[in-house]
Amino acid sequence: xxxxxxxxxxxxxxxxxxxxxxxxxxxxxxxxxxxxxxxxxxxxxxxxxxxxxxxxxxxxxxxxxxxxxxxxxxxxxxxxxxxxxxxxxxxxxxxxxxxxxxxxxxxxxxxxxxxxxxxxxxxxxxxxxxxxxxxxxxxxxxxxxxxxxxxxxxxxxxxxxxxxxxxxxxxxxxxxxxxxxxxxxxxxxxxxxxxxxxxxxxxxxxxxxxxxxxxxxxxxxxxxxxxxxxxxxxxxxxxxxxxxxxxxx
Length: 249
Fold this sequence. Notes:
Layout: H1 9-16, H2 20-27, H3 40-51, E1 57-63, H4 71-74, E2 78-86, H5 89-102, E3 108-112, E4 124-128, H6 141-151, E5 152-163, H7 171-189, H8 205-213, E6 215-220, E7 241-248
Helix pairs in contact: 1-2
């Protein structure tokens, strides 16, 4: 696969017939040219808001890092060490190439692992995650949050972006529901399953889940996500996006 060309329809189809790990291993070399990479109009205001916290984040982790769209920003605010964790070795390899090219002197760690069973304990001051929540089944959401709580130090912060509930008349809502229906049918008739669903991990329910596990949660309403130029967001209504700060108590 070329690293400069977009994935073709048949490559995306082949990827969709794998499980999550195998699918992303196949897509990894072209992922940054795919429509699934987290865009700068989300990442830029997100990390600008973190910088306003004026905290010394020594050790940070990008959970489900993918090819490192967020890692390249997170590593800049970690004063001592940066870690990326992902289930797909192919995605992790792309992330490692990207970060090593820009931060060769920073202590770096790239760990292949499951976000539902992370091999860390009370280790990180800051954690982020992008594009992963749809891969976490509803029944596993509390376990995922417990894992985040486990890997953070007391006072450590998990920053993430989610949405409020979309109104019934939103076209973004119905596109997401159609996508979820297609994945549901695919998983009923074909194995291995590919777990990826939109409209999950949303406010206000997720705020209550974090609080129940032991986080102090704040929705950062001063963060505005805006599309510039001719950029178009695919499945979600951007105005409903919210940045959330969860501090381990």
